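Give me the fold.
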Amino acid sequence: MRLIPKEIESLWTLFTAPTIWALHFLTCYITAAIHCAKADTAASLGTTSLVLGMVTVAALAGIALSAYLAWRQWGFGSGDPPHDEPTRRDRLLFQGFATLLLSGLSFVAVLFVAVPLVFIEACQP
């Protein structure tokens, strides 16, 4: 039994992971900027870091789901690239492989965006 139907795998899935990364990037940096602008100098980022940590976990989960769907569309790695034949099957395999690569890149990008949340403890004056 499949929890997620196969019909949702379309060209739009290619953009899912980078979109999640972009929204995570904007959320983290805008939230931190607003917090530091409203707070006194050297204010702690404790609660804000915790909330942004939860946003990061949610973003990573969304990207992992996108990667799973891409892996499934790629046929669980059954076909080796390049998928360059002018057939529907090769187009779907190529799209799944490309989406899987973008998901990996987006996962790493979210981790890099979250690194300052770990090392920066207070707003800088």
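The chain is about 65% helix and 0% strand.
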